[in-house]
Design brief:
single chain; 122 residues; alpha+beta; Beta Polymerase, domain 2; five-stranded mixed beta sheet; globular; translation regulation; repressor; Iojap/RsfS/C7orf30; Ribosomal silencing factor RsfS
Length: 122
């Protein structure tokens, strides 16, 4: 697989996001990589906040980081209840959950099943 400048940029963004999440005490941080050109994004970042306020703060700080450091303007959903905030940052999507909501939706398992199904269909 060829490693291009866009992938290098995405990797740099993800590392910065993980560093910021760790600084802000997010828990269970994980990254899921997707096959290039099959999805609208290359990577998904998933993290857990301890409360609705913590989830909203994490989302705000990540959006600020993306704008200030990378000139990436984001779109987000879920601030009202702040149980699950989704941030679209182009090649990276960010999902910040409260613990119970993360368990309920279990995105890691869903994406693993989708990936397995895609491989089986080939």
């Amino acid at each position: 697989m060829k490693y291009d400048s866009q992938q290098a940029q995405t990797d740099s963004v993800v590392k910065s996001l993980i560093d910021r999440l760790e600084e802000l005490k997010a828990e269970d941080i994980s990254v899921i990589e997707f096959e290039k050109n099959k999805w609208l994004f290359d990577k998904a970042l998933i993290a857990t906040g301890s409360s609705s306020r913590h989830v909203a703060t994490l989302a705000d700080k990540l959006c600020d980081l993306l704008k200030e450091e990378y000139s990436i303007f984001t779109k987000s959903e879920g601030y009202q209840a702040a149980e699950w905030i989704l941030i679209d940052a182009g090649s990276v999507i960010i999902n910040i959950f409260q613990e119970e909501t993360r368990r309920k939706y279990d995105l890691e398992e869903i994406w693993k099943k989708i990936g397995s199904a895609e491989k089986a269909l080939k």
